[in-house]
Amino acid sequence: MTTLRVVLGDQCCEGLSALDGMDAARDVVLMAEVRAECTYVRHHKQKIALVLSAMRHFAAALRGRGITVAYTCLNDADNTHSLAGEVARAAKAHGARRIICTHPGEFRVLRDMQSWRDATGLEVEIREDSRFLCSLDRFRAWAGDKKQLRMEYFYREMRRATGLLMTAPDEPAGGQWNYDAENRAALPAGLTPPRPRRFAPDAVTQAVIALVEREFPDHFGTTDQFHWPVTAEQAEQALADFVTHRLPRYGDYQDAMAQGEATLFHALVGAALNCGLLDPMAACRAAEAAYRSGHAPLNAVEGFIRQILGWREYVRGLYWLKMPAYRETNALEAHRPLPWLYWSGETGMACMAAAIRQTRDLAYAHHIQRLMVTGNFALLAGLAPAEVNDWYMVVYADAYEWVELPNVQGMALHADGGVMASKPYAASGAYINRMSDYCRGCAYDVKRPTGEGACPFNYLYWDFMARHATRFAKNMRMAMPLRTLAKMEPGKVATMRAQATAFLDALEAGAEPLPMARRTSASRAGRDSGLPLPEPTQATRRTPPARR
Fold first, then answer.
1. Is 4 helix (H, G, I), strand (E, B) or coil?
2. Residue 105 carries which DSSP code?
3. Were 459 and a residue from 83, 149, 430, 496 both cysteine, which residue would form a disulfide, CB within 3.0 to 4.6 Å?
4. pLDDT digits (tens, 9 = 90+) for 146-193
5. Dihedral sign of CA atoms 32, 36, 40, 44 in order
6. What is the pLDDT of residue 544?
7. Farthest-apart Cα atoms in the chain, separation
8. d(CA 54, CA 276)
9. How many helices (H) and strands (E) does the chain have?
10. What pTM was computed for the model?
11. Using CA atoms, how far apart are residues 246 and 59, in angstroms rounded to an integer?
């Protein structure tokens, strides 16, 4: 009896549960490149190239083991361009009697899988995704009837369960569970982080890049600097490079930002983890071994493991616990449309321009750029969560809805009303100035709260606080800024709020009101960015379009 075993584009893993118990003499693996998966949001060109290249390399590896792979290429003439269509076509072509697959990462794909039985008339077995360290059932049991689901307590449970960085069943290494307070040093002048391992595209990847440029020319981003690992071997090399060269200082400068330094001491393994090329426990064990051997300090290793064992597992559990209603939450009643600058990067705000240009070129920005620059601006400006979520899904190579949505909806935008975070991560320009060098030479003055040339983050911050003062009045973590707001002269608050409204209205109209004294330098900076996108018009200002 032939079994059709379906492997999705983000499941390029030899240990995938869908492949367990495979009979290589009779079973068939289906892998399909379909347009629907490339365009439900207009993914960054590098994201599409990464997934398609990883799929083609993984298919070749399976064939090398004597496994029959039914592979649909994007430009095959008989491609139905939907997962359900390709499953039905392959099941018929190979005389399959049942279908086995692994639980997907996105809710919409689960719904698609649940339709395969009707489409084919065959039994469909959806197996648990054992690549994750916490099963969905275990997360549901932990969540129970809690109203607030704090990652820190989940993380401690996972430390106990795995034994990672533990000296006894309830004793964390170093006597503390979390060293986040030691992860906030600003990058000192003259310190040059070592460059991460880059992987030159081989013939397979080059062919995929050409395909992407031909088939998706209007998608966001460029492929000029595509250097992602596309095989498990390359992903392991990328991890080893991080552990050897950047992990020792990752802890100190985890939250730092700097002009011209896209990667700093970060690992750049998220994309490989999320498409199945790298095992999360292996990544954690490699970092732990660096601590045990004295190669890397505890604050660095704990911070890295927390990102994988804590945040990554936590947001996946939260996503599946709360979907599909979670995507529709909008607790702060934010409705402004996403400004064109998120696509163009043409803005006098140096921090925003740097993060967006980097994202365009690399399909990457580290977590503080995402949370405290682009995410913080979206929060303060009251941008519509659906549009912000679609932007994050489009622009990053590691973006899949299970990881993107909770981080944006809950962490960046506080749209879930506090399910994930006890307070909104709102900050003025002072935070960005403390953690980066972006403010030097910016078109705006980070020291000015209002008036000509004032940093928009400053008056937007106080407008946000005033707008939600009643909502957060009983939140103890918001008490200090609200007390400061209450002591401000009412006229000053009114002036800042009026300036915030004028600035956001101008952005919505496509005309950022740059300070007169700095328009020339800001305009030059925009020209020098090399952004290939057109000037916004009423028809294009809100493209790429929302998901279908």
1. strand
2. S
3. 496
4. 888 999 999 999 999 999 999 999 999 999 999 988 888 888 988 999
5. positive
6. 52
7. 79
8. 9
9. 25, 7
10. 0.93
11. 32
Give Cβ neighbours of residue 351 (< 8 Å, ≥ 6 apart).
257, 373, 432, 436, 438, 439, 442
**Closest-CA residue to 426 (of 358, 334, 290):** 334
Q: What is the Cα–Cα distance from 436 to 430, expressed in whole angstroms?
A: 10
- Helix/strand/coil (H, E, C) string of 131-186? CCCCCHHHHHHHHCCCCCCCHHHHHHHHHHHHCCCEEECCEEHHHCCCCHHHCCCC
Q: How far apart are CA 252 and CA 181, in angstroms?
A: 9
Q: How far apart are CA 119 and CA 390, in angstroms?
A: 29
Per-residue model confidence (pLDDT) at position 517: 55
Q: Which residues contact 538 (CB under 8 A, 6 or more apart)?
A: none
For 23, which DSSP code? -
Q: List the one residue out of 541, 533, 514 whose CA is nearest residue 219.
A: 533
CB contact at 8 A, 268 and 242: yes
Q: Are 299 and 255 in contact (CB under 8 A)?
A: no
CB 285 within 8 A of CB 328: no
Look-up: residue for tokens 């491609």? 79
Q: Which residues of 434-443 are buried (b: 16+ CB within 10 A; e: fewer)?
A: ebbbbbeebb
Cβ(244)–Cβ(197) below 8 Å:
no
Q: For residue 77, what are its two tokens?
A: 């003439």
Res 527: pLDDT: 39
Ranges of beta strands (E only) in 67-145 are: 68-72, 98-102, 123-127
DSSP label of 97: S
Q: Say which amino acid occupies 114.
A: Q
Q: Which residues of 367-389 are buried (b: 16+ CB within 10 A; e: fewer)?
A: bbbbbbbbbbbbbbbbbbbbbbb
Structure-block tokens of residue 70: 């039914």
Which 3-state string (H, E, C) describes 417-466? CCCCCCCCCCCCHHHHHHHCCCCCCCCCECCCCCCCCECHHHHHHHHHHH
Q: Tokens standing for 369?
A: 């750029």
Residue 359 tokens, joined = 């994202």
262's tokens: 């896209």
Rounded-to-integer distance, Cα 207 and Cα 224, Å: 14
Q: In whole angstroms, give the CA distance from residue 197 to residue 153.
A: 34
Ranges of the chain with pLDDT below 50: 519-543, 545-548
186: its two tokens:
């600003």
Cα separation values, 132 from 113, 135, 314, Å: 20, 7, 10
User: Which residues touch 139 (CB under 8 Å, ≥6 apart)?
Assistant: 154, 313, 316, 317, 318, 320, 321
